[in-house]
Amino acid sequence: MNIFITGGTGLIGQALIPVLLNQQHQLSLLTRSEKKARRLFPQKNLRFFTSLTALKNLDEFDVVINLAGEPIFAKAWSEAQKATLFNSRVKLTEQIALLINAGLNPPRLISASATGIYGDGGDQLMNDENSTAFNTFSARLCQAWESAALQAKTTVCLLRTGIVLSPKGGALAKMLPLYRLNLAGRLGSGKQYWAWIALEDAVNAVLFLISNLDCKGIYNLTAPHPVTNSEFNQELAAALHRCAPFPVPAFALKLALGERADMLLESQNVFPKRLLEAGFKFQYVNLKQYFTSLFPKK
Asked: Could you write out the three-class secondary structure of 265-286?
């Protein structure tokens, strides 16, 4: 297939692109830094775009995989940073939808979103991808992001992705040093559910949706067994043979992180109902299995 990708230098993109190249797909990448992208992907058979203005439509492509977005947790959510987060997701997706609609042979669109759209659901099992979204910043951002993708007059798959776990980057890579120094602990009450997915399964889910042409609509990219933060804390500490005795109260997280603390404290008991119904098989179905694969006993 001829595939156009945005956000290729992110955590999922960096893992996805080598697999697609090995499968002999033709890839074109939209990137803000061609220098960085070429360093990450030195393969000769890649095309790079630094702007969408070079394209009149996207008819030459079979699939567009839209993963772009400013890292959401990296900086405090000032009004300026919120605008950056919005523009990097929503405005870019709107531009992609316009290009798709400008052609006569539109590609399928696989576009990122996040489980943040569900807000704080407590213990409620969120197995209905059409559940009502909540009125937090991250929920509003995801709603606008998905609405922009749905403007495309083509088959659209929306990826409501949970916490992507990998020791190579993202949240887990930032946690590991604290756990290895016995300085970690549960966050807030620890009762909030974390919807997670192994990086390998996130990549395989995208590949699955690419190859299954009947797939469309909203998909929760989360493992079948979400865990509470306390369970996550215990499982990771046990896998590393460490202690995690230092809980962080919710008020301390809010003082330190402001609105960003919501991403750690909101409870999202999310289940990948439609992905499983479509026939996708997870490599890592529960957290203990995943951590055991990462940190085998010596």
From this structure: HCCCEECCHHHHHCCCCCCCCC
Residue type, 93: T
Q: Residue 132: CA atoms inside 13 Å, Cβ hemisphere, count? A: 2
CB 196 within 8 Å of CB 287: yes
Q: Is the dihedral of CA 161, 166, 170, 173 positive or negative?
A: positive
Taking the C-alpha atoms of residue 66 and residue 68, their distance in angstroms, rounded to an integer, is 6
Angstrom CA distances, 285 to 3, 80, 226, 271, 288, stand at: 29, 39, 9, 11, 9
Residue type, 183: L
Burial pattern 85-117, b for ≥16 Cβ within 10 A else e, equals bbebbbebbbbbbebbeebeebbbbbbbbbbbb
- Taking the CB of residue 272, how many other CB atoms lie within 10 A of it? 25
**94-134 pLDDT tens trace:** 999 999 999 999 999 999 999 999 988 888 877 667 666 67
The two structure tokens encoding residue 55: 């394209």
Cβ neighbour number for residue 258 with a 10 Å cutoff:
12
Distances (CA, A) of 44 to 6, 33, 35, 36: 18, 17, 14, 15
In 115-172, beta strands by DSSP E: 125-126, 156-161, 163-165
For the segment 191-241, what is each residue's pLDDT rounded down to a tens digit? Answer: 999 999 999 999 999 999 999 999 999 999 999 999 999 999 999 999 999
The CATH T-level fold of domain 2-168+195-223+269-283 is: Rossmann fold (3.40.50)
Rounded Cα distance, 11 and 164, in Å = 8
